[in-house]
Structure prediction request, 131 residues.
Amino acid sequence: MENEFIRELLDTIKTSQLVTMLVVFMTDFFSGIMGCKMQGEEIQSKKWINGLLRKSQIFLMIFCIGLVTTLLHYPLLYECFFWLFLLGEIKSIFENAIKMKIPFAAEISNIIDNFTTQLLKKISAYAEKFK
Prediction:
């Protein structure tokens, strides 16, 4: 019984999604450094540490949301949070790509913005049904 719970918990908090998030975090972090360097900006340690702390908090929050939604049997809620956070990080990567003057980065960033806005509207409309 206890092993089933742990197995279900690990299945729900998908390891592949957490690994994906870590890869995206690292990509965002290093693209941010490259963007600063290419613009001739100085990399400030305070900004660097704040970025790492923010990413750690997001990772921990996604993990905790996974635990809670598993206990409540709401895996769709976890998926929504995961994808919204992932889209935010991907958007940040494209913002860094804009700093690096990579073609079409601004257009892709705008597409992600529009998609995220539409997704949040649909989630809000769906949540209104339960009030």
Observations:
- The chain has five helices and no strands.
- Residues 111 and 117 are 10 Å apart (CA to CA).
- The chain has a mean pLDDT of 84.
